[in-house]
Sequence to fold (590 residues):
Amino acid sequence: MARAVLHGIVVSTGIAIGKGFFVNKNPESARHELVPLDRIESEAARLQDAVDTVAAEFAEARARLPGDLRRHADVLTSHLLICTDPRLGGEALRRVREQRMNAEWALEESVARIADIFNALSSPYIRDRIEDVRLVTDRLFQRLSGACAPHPTGGERGILLAHDLTPTDVVDLPIERIAAFAVAQGGGTSHTGLLARSLHIPAVIGVFGLRKEIFDGDLLIVDGLKGKLLVDPSEAELAAYSDLREQYAIYRKRVAAYAVHPAETEDGVQVSVLANVESAAEAEGVLSAGGEGVGLVRTEFGYITRSSLPGEEDLYEEYAGLAAALAPRKVTFRTLDVGGDKVFSRGKVSEEANPALGLRGIRYCVRHQDIFRTQLRAILRAGAHGNVSMMFPLISGLSELRLAKSILNEAKQELDDADVPFDPHIPVGIMIELPSAVFMADALAREVDFFSIGTNDLIQYTLGADRGNRHVAHLYQPLHPSIVRAIKQVVDMAHKTGISVCVCGEMASDPYCLPILLGMPVDELSLAPQSIPAIKHLIRRSHARQSRKLLDQALFASTANAINNMVRQAVHSAFPEDVGFFVSQLGVNR
Ligand code: PEP
Ligand code: MG
Fold:
């Protein structure tokens, strides 16, 4: 038996075996000292020196980024901007000079203030950006303490262990020497997953006890299927996992070989499988993964990776590039889904007591119409270069939809008046993420071209369970009867009106949710490119008729457990050879 088994969340699948080595250990709590008056300027100089050195490291890392990691250049740019942002270093310097705090203490205080601001935001994507501030600060702490990054010892590939991970940590190291990542921190949208997926190595984040249970040089197994980390495993465990690693590699190859072919069930029902992306840089990855287009562009990344608001030309270039790269396949841009104005302006922060129920999604855009119109014009113009659709997030009802559409019409008029080419017939859809939209689906369907169900938010708002809060994770149930019934109602209403339905939340990539979604039946699934080959493989081995029967039973069930058991049984008997390679958010396979 292994000395310890730690658990975490899989953000990139696979199995790895190797010795662990730590980078950027979480600094112990910062030293708090009052600096004597005659040492204040030298303490300020020590801090300034750390900021300058770390900023130079980010710039250098960006310049050295290897080809397959180019898409992370934006992240390094944003880290460089955070590092040189006056709210971090400048504020800390002020605290050294005015409050006589030592450099570490002053930095800690600056970060705490910035964290307060970020925590007031509702979008999990934006909230996760506080991680970036912390990553930059950790590096500053390291620099202040004189520490530098260790390397794996010996010629073997090692398991990179970290409190948290930045692209800089990775480019500091020979990439071919890293077999997997295991990270203590990291929300679901952290860079660790993006990085690991680009490198095709397994990664597990949110590993509890990482620092306590593992020492540099310990032999580890990273189980990036079940989200486990085995410390100092037994011979039998090593043998079993070496075997699993091989089988998984064969499985991935087999599944990938057919990725670019259409996905049709055994009884002839075709399902479009599209990709969720964050930037135009992902176009090539979408195609090689077998994505038949893009069902969701999370456009907020184009905003938060910049230090100031992007202009219409910036956005237009990016969107048109993506549309052209994937034409004639469709690309659906979701309009900006952020939680508050503080992301863009360096000015005042509007605090909200309940940010998830506050000014987010379409509410933010109709409040800040200048930002909204700029984006709408860019999307409309990109429509002239490919097969573009757009959709509005977090629509709660008809009036909100009508308002958004009237602003869209004005944006069209502005382009028309200026003789700028654009697609006036861009299909317009909405995301179904709120229970109110589910109840009003019949009326909403009559005024849009398609629905896209954002199950991540629909589950959160229907069950009243924060999608990022581990204390209520047990209540966040994708196959809760209320969710199954809600999706069914939306699909029925859409089809009755003759519009299509896509599912673009995490449910679309969960093998245990697949039969339920096929049974609805949804027209399209949109998911992370990495998951596309496996989901297409499972669709090809599914029966639409059997899925409908399973759904009918699920619609009669009254608990999530009952539905989970039902799908578990169905999936295990339909795909017996595949289940060992599943990663499920239901957790029923754990
Ligand atoms: C969703 O809510 O399911 C969704 C796809 O949007 P996001 O995860 O970006 O909120
Ligand atoms: Mg959402």
About this structure: The CA atoms of residues 51 and 83 lie 7 Å apart. The longest helix spans residues 40-64.
